[in-house]
Design a protein that fits this description.
Layout lengths: L3 E5 L2 E2 L5 E5 L2 E5 L7 E10 L2 E11 L25 H15 L9 E2 L16 E7 L2 E5 L6 E2 L9 H12 L8 E7 L2 E8 L15 E7 L5 E3 L8 E7 L2 E6 L10 H14 L5 E5 L7 H8 L2 E6 L2 H14 L3 E5 L16 E4 L7 H5 L8 E6 L2 H13 L3 E8 L9 E7 L1
Parallel strand pairs: 4-6, 7-22, 12-13, 17-18, 17-20, 18-19, 20-21
Antiparallel strand pairs: 1-5, 2-3, 3-4, 5-6, 8-9, 8-11, 9-10, 11-12, 13-14, 15-16, 21-23, 22-23
Length: 417
Amino acid sequence: MSEQYTATVEAILPGGEGLVRERNHTVLIPNTVVGDRIQFQYTEKKRGVFRGEIKHIITPSSQRVQAKCSVANTCGGCALQHLSQPTQAELKNKWVTDAFQAFIDKHSTVISCSPQPNNSGFAGRRRVRWFMDNGKLGFRKRFSHHIVHSDSCMAITQDLDTLRKQLETSQLPQSIQSIQAVALSNGTHIILESEQSCPTDFTPPKQDNQQWWWSKLGTPSIQALHKPVQTLFDTIQITENKSINIQIGPNDFIQGHAKGNQILIQQILDWSKDAKRVVDLFSGCGNLSLPLAAATGIEVVGAELNPASVKAANNNAKRLGLNASYQTLDLFGVFSTEPFINADILILDPPRKGAKRICQQIGQLFPKKIIMVNCDIAAGARDAKALADAGFKLKALRPLDLFPYTGHVEALSLWEA
């Protein structure tokens, strides 16, 4: 529809889109701020939801600020650059508390999300995937495969932004479709992605702090472009005077924000005092439970869907001399709950779709406490209802902004029977 309409933005929903009402329609519009008076145009209706785009801001909201990024209105990465960082934190607090409101009572502690001090403007994401287009690297436009380029990306670390510029000036194979980079404590995994096999005449520059890989899209295959393969790790502080190094491979999951990950782990350490046995489901490579085992010497039993992550977790546990073991399980299917019964702490860190089956079986696991980490707060609220129905009470809730500038927020919650 080419006709333009006028409305006032009433709310910013999880994901970062603004909500307006036009006649009998609710319309979601990106790059908006509560209180903006706008002219907009409908762009699509998908799955019963109308979406639109701003054509003109008639009266800007008093909360609107100038976006730091020149392509913030078109790039699909950052939805909240038109809000100050304190306002972003307030908004993300509201999203999480609204989602879990039914479970909050006078005995629940809510720990507010506060903006991280940020003098450089860079948001600090350490994991990134760029798409290649005519020798330039960028991100996909919102709801599109079109690639958006910018001179600088504020969402990632400054070092990764510098790496992007270096990659663009390198003589990379034309067949590359995308590049992933994972910045760790002692170096960076650089993963070149293509539907083709690695060209035999390509030798990437060799640096002590970079490990290059070639990954064939659509397959699990990945090959190192340098040998011997460098061991890259994430350093995690577990006490004031003690830290551990968790080895991270190119395909291992790691939280995208290093400081945020440290805050997440410290909160779990605080909530797990006096625990003697911890069960970690959706354990990844042990990011949340290995620090527990290292800090206190407790027993950890974990499970994960990805075999590569399970192997990495067990290797890390063995190398660090920890009493922790992990196994590969389909945690969305039917599995034996016997190894995971009677934990002092049950950690649940599921992917975006949540941990529905486990939460429905929570009565068979008999944990004393549950710590749940949700990257999708709607799925987290559904899982929370299953825990509440099983008799667990929400003792503490903490929103965590592990995705600065974006419309995403992590919810960390503590439950007791």
